[in-house]
Write a structure and sequence with these properties.
The protein contains 11 helices and no strands. By secondary structure, it is mainly alpha-helical. The protein has one domain. Helix 1 runs parallel beside helix 5 and helix 6 packs across helix 7. It is globular and about 55 Å long.
């Protein structure tokens, strides 16, 4: 039955993955081909913009669309465990944006390689982008699990993104230079995005601290999403 659930999600979400691949590959190829700005600037701009957009794009098609079409109730009464439904949906959503990232990263390595940037910088940047996107995706799934329309899910996702942006600004304004600055900032998903420059400016301790804290947060988010989904009730009409 788990295989059937994966097939269902693949059948419904594959167009999103294909569109994301074409979109991301096209934007990256144009940016690197024109060379109007250095490769690092091009890749950084693309990484930040896609890190904001693609997790929302992936999450919109998982629960909100199913609830809007009133088909989630029929899925929940099938002879499967709820964790299996959640696993297939969240897992397929991850693939919708992680696969385009990986394909684009492979294209960058093949076409331009270390033309202007060290290979280590590219690898760390890719890992930082994936980490940031996964954490933000989980926060948005948790916030938007009860949404019954895709546009409401998108609005809640934007609110989550804005909340963490504001938290980062407040830390920078009021906690800079204090003993609490590092730990308050470390819980912010943007701390992962900031590791894009870890190759040159971040110590190994700082990298591992951010990674460990965000890993614990990710585990907590997975549990919280499961807890909410286990208590989600749908009506057929």
């Amino acid at each position: 039955m788990l295989k059937a659930l994966f097939w269902k999600e693949w059948h419904e979400q594959r167009w999103r993955m294909a569109l994301a691949c074409v979109w991301l590959l096209g934007v990256t190829a144009i940016g690197l081909k024109t060379r109007l700005v250095p490769d690092g600037v091009v890749l950084g701009m693309i990484a930040f913009s896609m890190g904001f957009v693609l997790p929302v794009f992936a999450g919109m098609g998982l629960f909100a669309e199913e609830r809007h079409a009133k088909t989630l109730v029929f899925l929940q009464v099938q002879p499967v465990y709820r964790w299996q439904i959640l696993l297939t949906k969240v897992g397929m959503g991850l693939l919708v944006f992680v696969v385009p990232y990986a394909v684009t990263f492979g294209l960058v390595l093949i076409t331009v390689g270390a033309r202007e940037l060290p290979l280590g910088f590219l690898v760390i940047g890719f890992m930082a982008l994936v980490g940031f996107s996964v954490i933000m995706y989980l926060w948005q799934i948790l916030a938007g699990l009860g949404a019954k329309r895709p546009e409401r899910y998108a609005a809640l996702s934007a609110a989550v993104l804005g909340m963490w942006m504001i938290q980062g600004l407040l830390v920078d304004e009021f906690a800079r230079g204090t003993a609490w600055e590092t730990w308050i900032w470390t819980v912010n998903p943007f701390a992962l995005a900031e590791l894009l420059d870890a190759w040159e400016y971040r110590s190994a301790r700082e990298v591992w601290t951010v990674t460990a804290v965000q890993g614990v947060i990710a585990a907590g988010l997975v549990w919280a999403v499961w807890f909410r989904f286990e208590r989600l009730r749908e009506r057929a009409s």
